[in-house]
Specification:
OB fold (Dihydrolipoamide Acetyltransferase, E2P); five-stranded antiparallel beta sheet; 1 helix
Length: 105
């Protein structure tokens, strides 16, 4: 038995709670899949077991970072996955966000 109520409601998608620290990931695959009643892009990475369900904000971010609107242009690229506070239904919640990965030195 888990320690928190969230342990009972495990999602098959990556959530902000799953992202403990900002993490540089490599995109290994992108698939369009059903999320609720909508088809959305799912980004699979080398560091997380669960896929990221991409909202419009994150799609725009990854397209800007990878310089590609096509999913195939995202594969093999590194991005930084992190969380940030966002307003949602009158509350501030943590959401997954994507930006350019820092330069490797």
């Amino acid at each position: 038995m888990g320690e928190k109520w969230q342990d009972v409601y495990q999602s098959r998608f990556l959530s902000a709670e799953d992202v403990k620290v900002p993490t540089v990931v490599t995109v290994v695959d992108v698939k369009e899949e059903l999320a609720g009643s909508d088809i959305k892009p799912f980004v699979y990475t080398d560091k997380f077991k669960k896929p990221i369900v991409m909202n419009r904000t994150n799609c725009k971010s990854i397209a800007r970072v990878t310089k590609s609107d096509k999913y195939t242009g995202w594969i093999g690229k590194q991005v930084l996955v992190y969380t940030a506070p966002v307003p949602f239904r009158g509350e501030e919640v943590q959401a997954i966000r994507i930006k350019e990965a820092p330069e490797s030195k």
